[in-house]
Amino acid sequence: MAPKETLSSPEPSRKAELVIKLSEFEIPPTQDILLVGRRAPIGPEAARRMVDAVSPEQYELISLDHEIFEAIVVKKSLLTLLPKDKLLPVVIEEGNRIADANMVIKAQVNISIQVSRTVDI
Predict the structure, then answer these.
(1) pLDDT tens digits for 82-113?
(2) What residues contact residue 1 under an 8 Å CB cut-off, 6+ apart?
(3) Enclosing H/E stretch for 52
Protein backbone atom coordinates (compact mmCIF):
# COMPACT_ATOMS: atom_id res chain seq x y z
CA MET A 1 0.00 0.00 0.00
CA ALA A 2 1.43 3.38 -1.02
CA PRO A 3 1.87 6.05 1.65
CA LYS A 4 -0.96 8.57 1.83
CA GLU A 5 -0.10 11.88 0.16
CA THR A 6 -0.65 14.99 2.21
CA LEU A 7 -1.43 18.44 0.91
CA SER A 8 0.80 21.15 2.24
CA SER A 9 1.03 24.76 1.37
CA PRO A 10 3.76 27.16 2.37
CA GLU A 11 3.01 29.85 4.91
CA PRO A 12 0.91 32.55 3.17
CA SER A 13 2.63 35.78 2.20
CA ARG A 14 1.21 38.80 4.02
CA LYS A 15 1.95 42.45 3.40
CA ALA A 16 0.45 45.62 4.80
CA GLU A 17 0.18 48.82 2.80
CA LEU A 18 -0.15 52.02 4.80
CA VAL A 19 -1.58 55.26 3.47
CA ILE A 20 -1.14 58.02 6.03
CA LYS A 21 -2.61 61.52 5.86
CA LEU A 22 -1.11 63.97 8.34
CA SER A 23 -2.46 67.43 9.16
CA GLU A 24 -2.70 69.81 12.07
CA PHE A 25 -5.13 68.80 14.80
CA GLU A 26 -8.60 70.38 14.86
CA ILE A 27 -11.46 70.14 17.34
CA PRO A 28 -13.35 67.84 17.42
CA PRO A 29 -10.83 65.09 16.75
CA THR A 30 -12.25 62.76 14.15
CA GLN A 31 -9.17 61.00 12.84
CA ASP A 32 -7.44 57.74 13.64
CA ILE A 33 -4.29 58.96 15.41
CA LEU A 34 -3.17 62.03 17.33
CA LEU A 35 0.53 62.76 17.82
CA VAL A 36 0.86 65.02 20.88
CA GLY A 37 3.92 67.29 20.91
CA ARG A 38 5.92 67.74 24.12
CA ARG A 39 4.99 71.46 24.31
CA ALA A 40 1.55 71.22 22.66
CA PRO A 41 -1.31 73.38 24.00
CA ILE A 42 -3.05 70.23 25.23
CA GLY A 43 -1.42 67.30 26.96
CA PRO A 44 -1.84 63.59 26.28
CA GLU A 45 -4.50 63.05 28.94
CA ALA A 46 -6.62 65.97 27.65
CA ALA A 47 -6.31 64.56 24.11
CA ARG A 48 -7.45 61.14 25.33
CA ARG A 49 -10.44 62.68 27.14
CA MET A 50 -11.43 64.56 23.98
CA VAL A 51 -11.44 61.46 21.81
CA ASP A 52 -13.21 59.49 24.54
CA ALA A 53 -15.93 62.17 24.60
CA VAL A 54 -16.54 61.58 20.88
CA SER A 55 -15.88 57.81 20.80
CA PRO A 56 -15.74 56.25 24.28
CA GLU A 57 -13.31 53.35 24.74
CA GLN A 58 -12.25 53.46 21.07
CA TYR A 59 -8.77 54.98 21.53
CA GLU A 60 -5.61 54.02 23.40
CA LEU A 61 -3.15 56.52 24.89
CA ILE A 62 0.49 55.48 24.49
CA SER A 63 3.29 57.46 26.16
CA LEU A 64 6.39 57.95 24.02
CA ASP A 65 10.07 58.48 24.71
CA HIS A 66 10.61 60.79 21.73
CA GLU A 67 12.28 64.18 21.28
CA ILE A 68 9.20 65.80 19.66
CA PHE A 69 6.16 63.74 20.70
CA GLU A 70 5.08 63.06 24.26
CA ALA A 71 2.31 60.62 23.38
CA ILE A 72 0.20 59.11 20.67
CA VAL A 73 -3.54 58.49 20.83
CA VAL A 74 -4.46 55.68 18.45
CA LYS A 75 -7.76 54.10 17.46
CA LYS A 76 -7.82 50.58 18.92
CA SER A 77 -9.26 49.07 15.75
CA LEU A 78 -6.06 50.00 13.88
CA LEU A 79 -4.05 47.99 16.38
CA THR A 80 -6.23 44.99 15.61
CA LEU A 81 -5.17 45.20 11.96
CA LEU A 82 -1.51 46.03 12.52
CA PRO A 83 0.56 45.57 15.69
CA LYS A 84 1.90 48.64 17.52
CA ASP A 85 5.51 47.76 16.71
CA LYS A 86 4.72 47.94 12.97
CA LEU A 87 2.30 50.89 12.91
CA LEU A 88 3.67 53.41 15.39
CA PRO A 89 7.26 53.73 14.08
CA VAL A 90 5.97 54.58 10.59
CA VAL A 91 3.45 57.15 11.85
CA ILE A 92 5.99 58.72 14.23
CA GLU A 93 8.65 58.89 11.50
CA GLU A 94 6.29 60.65 9.09
CA GLY A 95 4.93 62.96 11.79
CA ASN A 96 8.49 63.83 12.75
CA ARG A 97 9.04 65.18 9.21
CA ILE A 98 6.31 67.82 9.46
CA ALA A 99 5.79 68.60 13.15
CA ASP A 100 7.45 70.35 16.02
CA ALA A 101 6.99 69.89 19.76
CA ASN A 102 4.31 72.64 19.91
CA MET A 103 1.86 70.79 17.67
CA VAL A 104 -0.82 68.15 17.92
CA ILE A 105 -0.93 66.27 14.62
CA LYS A 106 -3.90 64.23 13.50
CA ALA A 107 -3.35 61.33 11.14
CA GLN A 108 -5.84 59.45 9.04
CA VAL A 109 -4.56 55.92 8.46
CA ASN A 110 -5.98 53.47 5.95
CA ILE A 111 -4.64 49.94 6.22
CA SER A 112 -5.25 47.36 3.55
CA ILE A 113 -4.02 43.83 4.13
CA GLN A 114 -2.89 41.81 1.13
CA VAL A 115 -2.82 38.01 1.36
CA SER A 116 -1.40 35.79 -1.32
CA ARG A 117 -1.71 32.01 -0.97
CA THR A 118 -0.78 29.07 -3.09
CA VAL A 119 -2.64 25.78 -2.79
CA ASP A 120 -1.93 22.41 -4.34
CA ILE A 121 -4.50 21.25 -6.87
Answers:
(1) 999 999 999 999 999 999 999 999 999 989 88
(2) none
(3) helix 44-54
Other Cβ atoms closer than 10 A to 119: 9
Model-level pTM greater than 0.70?
Answer: yes
Cβ atoms of residues 23 and 42 within 8 Å: no
Closest listed residue to residue 78, CA positions, set 69, 70, 87:
87
Q: Is 86 left (phi over 0), alpha (psi -120 to 50) or beta?
A: alpha
Distance CA 79, CA 119 (A): 29
- Average pLDDT along the chain: 87
Environment class of residue 83 by beta-carbon count within 10 Å: exposed (0-12), middle (13-18) or buried (19+)?
exposed
Residue type, 35: L
Spatial distance between the Cα atoms of 12 and 109, rounded to a whole number of angstroms: 25
CB within 8 Å of 80: residues ≥ 6 apart: none
